[in-house]
Amino acid sequence: MKKIFNYLLILSIVSFTSESCTSKKPISKVENTKKITKIPCSDFRTDKNYFRASASFKGPDLQFARENSAALSRAQLAANIKANIEATNNRFAEQRNIGGKVEFTQKATAQTDQIVVESVQFTSIVCEEVEQSSDGQYTVYSAVEVSQDVILNGVEKAMSSDEKLRQDFDAAQYRKIHNEKIEEYKNSRN
After folding, report:
1. Model pTM?
2. DSSP letters of 60-123?
3. Which residues contact 112 (CB under 8 A, 6 or more apart)?
4. What digits encode the pLDDT tens for the residues 86-129?
5. CB-CB contact of 169 with 153 (8 Å)
6. Distance between first and last Cα of the chain
7. How confident is the model at residue 18 (pLDDT cuts 50, 70, 90)?
8. Which of 20, 114, 125, 180 has the fewest beta carbons closer than 10 A?
Protein backbone atom coordinates (compact mmCIF):
# COMPACT_ATOMS: atom_id res chain seq x y z
CA MET A 1 0.00 0.00 0.00
CA LYS A 2 2.83 2.32 0.90
CA LYS A 3 4.45 1.64 -2.48
CA ILE A 4 1.25 2.51 -4.29
CA PHE A 5 0.89 5.69 -2.28
CA ASN A 6 4.49 6.72 -3.07
CA TYR A 7 3.95 5.89 -6.71
CA LEU A 8 0.78 8.01 -6.89
CA LEU A 9 2.49 10.85 -5.05
CA ILE A 10 5.38 10.88 -7.50
CA LEU A 11 3.00 10.64 -10.44
CA SER A 12 0.93 13.60 -9.20
CA ILE A 13 4.06 15.70 -8.57
CA VAL A 14 5.39 14.96 -12.06
CA SER A 15 2.07 15.77 -13.71
CA PHE A 16 1.69 18.96 -11.67
CA THR A 17 5.21 20.12 -12.55
CA SER A 18 4.81 19.39 -16.21
CA GLU A 19 1.51 21.28 -16.23
CA SER A 20 3.03 24.32 -14.58
CA CYS A 21 5.93 24.42 -17.06
CA THR A 22 3.78 24.63 -20.13
CA SER A 23 2.78 27.97 -21.49
CA LYS A 24 -0.82 28.83 -22.28
CA LYS A 25 0.24 31.45 -24.85
CA PRO A 26 0.07 30.48 -28.50
CA ILE A 27 3.45 30.23 -30.20
CA SER A 28 4.04 33.20 -32.44
CA LYS A 29 5.32 32.66 -35.93
CA VAL A 30 8.94 33.57 -36.43
CA GLU A 31 9.51 35.53 -39.56
CA ASN A 32 12.38 34.40 -41.75
CA THR A 33 14.73 37.24 -40.96
CA LYS A 34 18.00 36.59 -42.70
CA LYS A 35 20.39 39.45 -42.52
CA ILE A 36 23.17 39.22 -45.03
CA THR A 37 26.08 41.47 -44.31
CA LYS A 38 28.68 42.28 -46.92
CA ILE A 39 32.12 41.99 -45.38
CA PRO A 40 34.23 45.04 -46.21
CA CYS A 41 37.30 44.47 -48.42
CA SER A 42 36.14 40.97 -49.37
CA ASP A 43 35.76 41.88 -53.06
CA PHE A 44 39.52 41.87 -53.49
CA ARG A 45 40.30 38.38 -54.79
CA THR A 46 43.26 36.74 -56.48
CA ASP A 47 43.26 37.07 -60.27
CA LYS A 48 45.76 36.63 -63.11
CA ASN A 49 47.57 39.87 -62.22
CA TYR A 50 47.55 39.92 -58.41
CA PHE A 51 47.53 37.63 -55.42
CA ARG A 52 45.16 39.10 -52.83
CA ALA A 53 43.98 38.30 -49.33
CA SER A 54 41.82 40.01 -46.73
CA ALA A 55 41.33 39.80 -42.98
CA SER A 56 39.92 41.73 -40.04
CA PHE A 57 40.94 42.48 -36.48
CA LYS A 58 38.98 43.89 -33.55
CA GLY A 59 40.60 45.80 -30.73
CA PRO A 60 40.27 48.79 -28.39
CA ASP A 61 43.04 50.83 -30.07
CA LEU A 62 42.60 51.93 -33.70
CA GLN A 63 46.28 51.84 -34.67
CA PHE A 64 46.77 48.43 -33.03
CA ALA A 65 43.70 47.09 -34.86
CA ARG A 66 44.95 48.51 -38.19
CA GLU A 67 48.41 46.97 -37.79
CA ASN A 68 47.02 43.58 -36.80
CA SER A 69 44.45 43.52 -39.57
CA ALA A 70 47.17 44.22 -42.14
CA ALA A 71 49.44 41.59 -40.54
CA LEU A 72 46.67 38.98 -40.68
CA SER A 73 46.00 39.86 -44.33
CA ARG A 74 49.70 39.44 -45.14
CA ALA A 75 49.83 36.12 -43.27
CA GLN A 76 46.84 34.85 -45.25
CA LEU A 77 48.45 36.08 -48.46
CA ALA A 78 51.72 34.31 -47.59
CA ALA A 79 49.87 31.04 -46.92
CA ASN A 80 48.02 31.31 -50.25
CA ILE A 81 51.22 32.07 -52.17
CA LYS A 82 53.07 29.19 -50.53
CA ALA A 83 50.29 26.71 -51.31
CA ASN A 84 50.16 27.90 -54.92
CA ILE A 85 53.92 27.69 -55.45
CA GLU A 86 54.09 24.19 -53.96
CA ALA A 87 51.17 22.97 -56.09
CA THR A 88 52.72 24.55 -59.19
CA ASN A 89 56.10 22.96 -58.42
CA ASN A 90 54.48 19.53 -58.09
CA ARG A 91 52.53 19.83 -61.33
CA PHE A 92 55.57 21.27 -63.12
CA ALA A 93 57.70 18.30 -62.02
CA GLU A 94 55.01 15.85 -63.18
CA GLN A 95 54.51 17.48 -66.59
CA ARG A 96 58.22 17.88 -67.31
CA ASN A 97 58.93 14.20 -66.59
CA ILE A 98 61.94 15.24 -64.58
CA GLY A 99 64.17 12.27 -63.75
CA GLY A 100 64.84 13.36 -60.19
CA LYS A 101 61.28 14.54 -59.59
CA VAL A 102 61.51 14.01 -55.83
CA GLU A 103 64.83 15.86 -55.63
CA PHE A 104 63.50 18.70 -57.81
CA THR A 105 60.36 19.02 -55.69
CA GLN A 106 62.34 18.97 -52.43
CA LYS A 107 64.80 21.62 -53.62
CA ALA A 108 62.03 23.80 -55.07
CA THR A 109 60.02 23.49 -51.85
CA ALA A 110 63.08 24.49 -49.83
CA GLN A 111 63.21 27.70 -51.89
CA THR A 112 59.50 28.41 -51.40
CA ASP A 113 59.75 30.01 -47.95
CA GLN A 114 62.33 32.52 -49.18
CA ILE A 115 60.19 33.35 -52.23
CA VAL A 116 57.16 33.92 -49.99
CA VAL A 117 59.08 36.17 -47.57
CA GLU A 118 60.44 38.27 -50.43
CA SER A 119 57.05 38.47 -52.15
CA VAL A 120 55.20 39.60 -49.02
CA GLN A 121 57.64 42.51 -48.69
CA PHE A 122 56.15 43.95 -51.88
CA THR A 123 52.52 43.92 -50.70
CA SER A 124 50.28 46.94 -50.87
CA ILE A 125 47.19 47.61 -48.79
CA VAL A 126 44.42 48.05 -51.36
CA CYS A 127 41.47 48.33 -49.00
CA GLU A 128 40.99 49.34 -45.40
CA GLU A 129 37.69 50.02 -43.67
CA VAL A 130 37.08 50.80 -40.01
CA GLU A 131 33.97 50.23 -37.90
CA GLN A 132 33.59 51.38 -34.31
CA SER A 133 31.11 49.53 -32.11
CA SER A 134 29.08 51.09 -29.30
CA ASP A 135 31.53 49.70 -26.73
CA GLY A 136 34.40 51.64 -28.33
CA GLN A 137 36.03 48.64 -30.04
CA TYR A 138 37.44 49.12 -33.53
CA THR A 139 37.07 46.49 -36.22
CA VAL A 140 39.45 47.04 -39.10
CA TYR A 141 39.02 45.18 -42.38
CA SER A 142 41.94 45.17 -44.79
CA ALA A 143 43.00 43.61 -48.07
CA VAL A 144 46.52 43.35 -49.44
CA GLU A 145 47.91 42.41 -52.82
CA VAL A 146 51.17 41.57 -54.55
CA SER A 147 51.79 41.34 -58.27
CA GLN A 148 51.95 37.88 -59.82
CA ASP A 149 55.11 39.06 -61.62
CA VAL A 150 56.87 39.62 -58.29
CA ILE A 151 56.11 36.03 -57.32
CA LEU A 152 57.09 34.54 -60.68
CA ASN A 153 60.29 36.59 -60.82
CA GLY A 154 61.12 35.32 -57.33
CA VAL A 155 60.56 31.73 -58.46
CA GLU A 156 62.73 32.22 -61.56
CA LYS A 157 65.49 33.80 -59.47
CA ALA A 158 65.39 30.94 -56.95
CA MET A 159 65.40 28.27 -59.66
CA SER A 160 68.31 29.85 -61.51
CA SER A 161 70.39 30.11 -58.32
CA ASP A 162 70.60 26.30 -58.01
CA GLU A 163 72.41 24.42 -60.79
CA LYS A 164 70.24 21.29 -60.63
CA LEU A 165 67.02 23.30 -60.58
CA ARG A 166 68.24 25.54 -63.41
CA GLN A 167 68.79 22.49 -65.68
CA ASP A 168 65.21 21.28 -65.24
CA PHE A 169 63.49 24.67 -65.14
CA ASP A 170 61.55 26.11 -68.08
CA ALA A 171 60.25 29.57 -67.16
CA ALA A 172 57.60 29.72 -69.90
CA GLN A 173 56.11 26.35 -68.97
CA TYR A 174 56.24 27.24 -65.26
CA ARG A 175 54.34 30.49 -65.92
CA LYS A 176 51.74 28.57 -67.92
CA ILE A 177 51.20 26.06 -65.11
CA HIS A 178 51.15 28.89 -62.54
CA ASN A 179 48.42 30.69 -64.51
CA GLU A 180 46.40 27.45 -64.72
CA LYS A 181 46.65 27.05 -60.94
CA ILE A 182 45.50 30.66 -60.47
CA GLU A 183 42.45 29.98 -62.65
CA GLU A 184 41.66 26.86 -60.60
CA TYR A 185 42.03 28.88 -57.40
CA LYS A 186 39.80 31.67 -58.72
CA ASN A 187 37.12 29.21 -59.82
CA SER A 188 37.15 27.43 -56.48
CA ARG A 189 36.59 30.73 -54.63
CA ASN A 190 33.52 31.74 -56.65
Report:
1. 0.74
2. SSHHHHHHHHHHHHHHHHHHHHHHHHHHHHHHHHHHHT-TTHHHHHHHHHHHHHHHHHHHHTT-
3. 82, 85, 86, 89
4. 999 888 888 876 667 788 888 888 889 899 999 999 999 999 99
5. no
6. 73
7. very low
8. 20
